[in-house]
Amino acid sequence: MDKFLLQQQVLERLAESLLQAEQAVRAAHETATHEENIAENKYDTLGLEAAYLATGQARRAEGIRQAMANWRQFRPNPYDASKGIQLGALVCLVDSDDKQQQLFLGPGGGSMKLVCGAQVVQVISSEAPLSRAMLGKCEGDEVWIQVALIRQQFEVLRVY
Question: Are residues 103 and 142 in the same domain?
Answer without folding.
Answer: yes
